[in-house]
Amino acid sequence: MFDPASIDWGLFGLWYVVFLFSLTVHEGAHALAAHWGGDDTAYRNGQVTLNPLPHIRQEPFGTLVFPALSFLWFGWMMGWASTPFDPFWARREPRRAALMSAAGPIGNFLLAFLALALCKVLIGAGTLAAPDHASFDLVVVPPGAVEAGAGLALAHALSMTLMLNALLGLFNLVPLPPLDGSGILLGLLPEATADRVRELFSSPGVGLIGMMVAWYGFGRVFSPVFGAILEFLHPGMYVR
Q: Domain limits of the chain?
């Protein structure tokens, strides 16, 4: 039976703030790149913004319900949002559409890089240190921290920002619909080939297959990335 008292609501709140901000940056970057490239669909929808509300209105289940469910099931948050665009514009301007698709992951990689750099600086300053057992949402801790507090909250927030954005950026590069990598691929292919691939991508069930392939294969890719991040932050500490 579900017991609300068993949930760490402080950790839930931290996760949701980081998740929603990361998703907003991702979708806002898509919308801004499309606007700069000549498609104002998302701009008119109010999504060229870091205000999360327009993105929540666009996809309430993916931004509100599913993140909460994923936290209850797995202890970490995932979800989705969407940025509308004009498909006729995308076919007329395939390179600009590819840049629009790439902008979301690029936004996530920038956030991950900033969090990584800040973690490294704070480790060097002695403000943060290596945890005894690193996890997805705790790759740094305050030195000797065993109790909750502002220092541990900062460590959690930086760890979540780093790892979640690295995951979102890499995951969305998979070149299968509905992920951003499919849009990047279409923009890089010759026109005739892109038309054939686009027709294949529009077939029923391809999006579901793409998500299944990406989800089950991603762990093999992200595990060494997680190891590389730990090695950069704490050289030699987690070598087996």
A: 4-172
Report the distance separating Cα 95 and Cα 37, nearest Å.
9
Q: ∠ CA(52), CA(97), CA(225), 5° rounding?
A: 65
Q: How far apart are CA 54 and CA 41, in angstroms?
A: 13
pLDDT tens-digit map of 105-158 = 999 999 999 999 999 999 999 999 999 999 999 999 998 755 557 889 999 999
pTM for this structure?
Answer: 0.92
- CA 102 – CA 29 distance, rounded (Å): 9
Helices 150-171/206-233 angle, 10° precision: 130
Listing DSSP states for 189-204 in one string gives S-HHHHHHHHHHHTST
Strand partners, 138: 135
DSSP secondary structure code for residue 76 in this structure? S
CA distance to 69, 78, 156, per residue, from 171 (Å): 20, 12, 22
Yes or no: say if 73 and 7 are a contact pair by the CB < 8 Å rule: no
Residues 6+ apart with CB under 8 A from 30: 42, 47, 83, 85, 100, 101, 103, 104, 180
pLDDT tens for residues 151-199?
A: 899 999 999 999 999 999 998 998 989 899 999 999 999 999 998 999 8
